[in-house]
Amino acid sequence: MLTDKARGSFSFRIFKSFALSILLVFAAFTSVFIYYENKAVRNDLYKEGKMLADLLAYNARTWVFAENKEMLKDAVKGILDQKNVLAVVIYNADKKTLLIEKREAKQTSRNTIHTGLESIEVSFVQEAAESAETEGTINFLSPVKLDTYKNPEEAFYLDLEHTQTKQTVIGYVKVIMDKSMLRREMNAILLRNGLTALVLLFLGSSAIYVSVRRATRPLTRLAESARSLGRGETIEKIPVETMDEIGRLAIDFNAMSDNLKKREEEKEALEERLRHAQKMEAIGTLARGIAHDFNNILATLRGSIYLMEKKLQERIDIKQYTGQVHNSITKAQNLVRSLLTFSRTQKIELYPMDINSIIRKLQPMLLSIAGENIRLQIALCDEALMVLTDRLPMEQILMNLCSNARDSMSAGGSITISTKCS
Q1: Which of 42, 113, 182, 230 is the most buried (most CB within 10 A)?
Q2: 84 close to 181: Cβ distance less than 8 angstroms
Q3: By CB neighbour count within 10 A (0-12 exposed, 13-18 middle, 19+ buried), where does 291 fall?
Q4: Backbone angles phi, psi at 2, to 5 degrees
Q5: Whole-number mean pLDDT of the chain?
Q6: Which residues contact 280 (CB under 8 A, 6 or more apart)?
């Protein structure tokens, strides 16, 4: 038994359509064939019955004229030997029955004899028609004619060849044919056509099934690949076997699969960038918190240093240390400003600045960064070098360059910072 999934498949629907088409075509062909075969068999039976009746009427005319029943039996015997003849009835000119001969029961089936003999018309009732059908028989009536001359004595003695003659009906011959032969022929035709239909339907269905399976195999692979793609599994490209609609569908599916892979890779890259941005946002949030808290500490220190400087107006030796602390606080505030800039909470402000001036003011810090093993050389041009920048990022760049150069010379060396006027 076919499952619901198999009955609903595309290949089964195609197979069912083809099988029904073959069945309908063969049924129409069989109906037409049976119609014409029935007509042909009926015509052959009528031709046979008319021919036998005419032949018997011609051969038995002498014995009908003489009303010799024994000779008539001999003439009728050859007609009764025909397989479809049930009986023969011979009448005289007065339409009286001269002879009735029936086929022996052993030569035909019981049903045929019973059906045929019951419908035999012994009395003469068909005066005008040459043939007539009853329930189980077809009756063929043929007149028995005898040639006569107008002057028979003159024709006999003078041996005249062109003496005028006329035909006189001296009796009638009825040949009764078995109509059940038509049913047997039709049953045989139906049986042959039924067997042929079964064989052709089996062969055609097998060929259609194989063809449909071969044609829908790429669709099956395509459906499996589509399901795998929907589950997110890695799929291989579908082979393109033909360039018909199914082949073009496979090409389009492979292109769609490649596009989906590219989009998936782009999606992963975007997700990675998003995660990195979220991390940087978290770092920025942390930096903002630290910068604000540290800025508050520096503000307290700056206020304390300011009060100390006011009280130490006359102590120059101690005041220089407070000045250094004040400078350190300023640098620390610049560092806080860098953190706020990094966290994107403070806007970068660009101003025209002399880069030589920035380097000169930053020289003590750079010397401190370089350390004792590194010799720092600064060679600046005489003219001012004006650039549009923010002081804090520029200072941060210079300090990073100096720090990186120091880290790359663990055994000592020289760092040169120079500018050139164009």
Answers
A1: 113
A2: yes
A3: buried
A4: -80, 140
A5: 77
A6: none
- 377 and 335 Cβ atoms separated by less than 8 Å: no
For residue 137, report the phi and psi dihedrals to the nearest 5 degrees. -140, 165
Contacts (Cβ under 8 Å, ≥6 apart) of 62: 71
Beta bridge partners of 168: 146
Measured from the Cβ of residue 188, the count of other Cβ atoms closer than 10 Å reads 11
Q: What pTM does this model have?
A: 0.45
Residue labelled with tokens 């069945």: 23
Nearest to 175 by CA among 130, 145, 135, 136: 130
Tokens of 350: 């660009």
Q: Please say whether the beta carbons of 26 and 204 come within 8 A.
A: no
Q: Which helix (H) or strand (E) holds 172?
A: strand 165-178
The answer to whether the CB of 142 falls within 8 A of the CB of 56 is yes
Separation CA 253–CA 225 (nearest Å) = 9
- Enter the tokens of residue 194: 């039924």
| 176-221 per-position pLDDT tens digit | 988 877 777 778 877 887 788 788 778 877 777 777 777 777 777 7
Looking at residue 260, what is its pLDDT? 79
Please state the φ and ψ torsions of residue 130, each to the nearest 5 degrees.
Answer: -80, -25
* CA count, 13 A, side-chain hemisphere, 254: 12
Alpha carbon distance 295, 292 (integer Å)? 5
- The number of helix segments (H) and strand segments (E) in the chain equals 11, 9
- The two beta strands, 165-178 and 85-92, are antiparallel
Helix ranges, 343-354 (H): none
Stronger pLDDT, 408 or 6, i.e. the higher one: 408
H or E stretch covering 170: strand 165-178
The residues that bridge with 352 in the sheet, in sequence order, are: 388
Mean pLDDT of 320-342: 72
Cα 230 from Cα 122, distance rounded (Å): 89
198-202 long-range contacts (CB < 8 A, ≥24 apart) are: 200/22, 200/26, 201/19, 201/22, 201/23, 201/26
